[in-house]
Every structure is written in structure tokens, then in C-alpha cells.
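Input chain follows. Return C-alpha cells only.
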Amino acid sequence: MTASTASLTPPLGAEPKDWIALLKPRVCSLVVFTGAIGLVIAPGPINPFIAAVAIFCIALGAGAAGAINMWYDADIDALMRRTAKRPVPAGRVEPGAVLGYGIVLAVFSVVLLAMATNLVAAGALAFSIFYYAVIYTMWLKRRTPQNIVIGGGAGAFPPIIGWAAVTGHVGLLPVLLFAIVFFWTPPHFWSLSLYAAKDYEKAGIPMLPVVKGAKHTRLNVLVYSLLLLPLSISPWLLGLTGRIYGVTALITSAIFAALCFGVFADRQDETGVSLTGDKPARRAFKFSLLYLVILFTAVAVDRLV
């Protein structure tokens, strides 16, 4: 059942903060950051005003996808403690208005980016919105425990969009940054899902700990973090970045892998449920947020230096 058919309480009157919340600003902040780094590291000049417009479009497009996600997921959001107070399940905003809001913002962001930069960047933005709103939210999320693995591509597009806004094409470096975010997503979200598994189970979302169990999830968190390590230093090994990025990526990825090993080795019962309150998983999740910030900052510093 989607938000359009969910039984929600009558709207209490939306405030400006509700419309902002629908854009998922915390998620958008990371998307904007990685997109801005794509702009900074791209070869060639770009007018500062055009750069600002491009970043605004990336933020608006990500927010539009978030709004459509909240419209569609209102029924399951209402069942989870972490999301029950969002504007739609809480009944502060009409579901139909949220869908219209998301679609209008999505179209506006893509058209504006096309006018300000080029069709390659606008096309990548349009596909990223479609990927998150349709492929991940409507197709994968409720159907497969691999939802996060495949859906990780949605949040990995911003560096490509930023790069394309400057160059009009897609290069190897932004593709590698896309891959880094793609492989970072599973250990990031699965660490969270380990201590939010009851919420996901209650909502009927086939997250990996719910379907395969905590022990299997812990192994996958470790495996993906180990795959991420060589991938993160590949831009350096291929000569696309310098030593500043290479050393930073190696150290940061090694720390993340060590934290993920802590998740794997956490004291567990016979089913893999943590006996420590999932403290290692919480530490890995918190560091995963810092991980991308450090890595992408290092790319920008390296290229500028």
C-alpha cells in the first residue's frame, strides 16, 4: 500500500519546516557536497554563478526525489519509530500535494540545469531522480534484500553531474567516485539496519538483517568495506589524483574497514544478534558519514594543489 492509499489522519496544517523536511535536508547536504566536489575537480573553467546554479539544481533534484519517496513510503514510515513523525505519516501534509511538490521540483531542477549548463548534466540529474524515486523506492525497497546494494547508485550520481556541468561529458575520475559511493552505501546502511532491524521488520521491508539475519549482514558489512579499500585508492593508482588523496584514502578506508571488522566480530548470540547493543555498528555508521566527507575533501585539495 502506498501513500496514496494509506489511512492517514486529516492534515493539521503544514508549516514551512514541513515542506523543507520533505526534501530530506540531511541527505541532501551530502549529495550537494559530493556534487560540488565534482564541479571543483572537473577540468576547465565555470562561471561562479553558473556553478552555484548547478549546485542548487543538484540540491533541488535530490530534494524532489526525497519528497516523492516520502509520498510513496508514507504507509511504512508510519510504522517505524524513526520515521513516524515525518510530515506525511503524521498527517501534516496531504499526500497528493507532496507528490505534486516532488514532481514540480524535479522537472524544474532538470530544466534549469539544462538551460544553465548542458544536456549531459541535466540528463544525469534526471536519471538520478528517476533512479531514487522509481527504481529504488517503488521497485527495489519492498522487494529484495539487495535494495541498498542496487539502490546505492541513486546517491552516487552527484560527482558525475557536477563534473558534466563543467565539461559536458563524463570522465573516468567521476565514474570512480560514483563507484566509491556505490560500494560505500551497503556497509553504511547495513550498519544502521543492524540496530534498526525491528523497525524494518515491523514495516515489512526486506532489509538484509530481516531476511538473512544479523550474522549474514555483519559478514556483508565487512566484505563491502574490504572491497571499498582498493577501489578508494584506484584514482591514485591510475594517476588521476596525487599523493595527498592516495594516502588519505588509504588511511581512511583502512579505519573504516577496521570499524566494519568490529561489526563483524561484535559479541553475538547464536543468531548473530549483538550482546553489546550494536555499539560497533553504531560507530561504523557514524564514521561512514565522516568517511565520504574526508575522501571527497581530499580529492578536491589534491586537485587544487
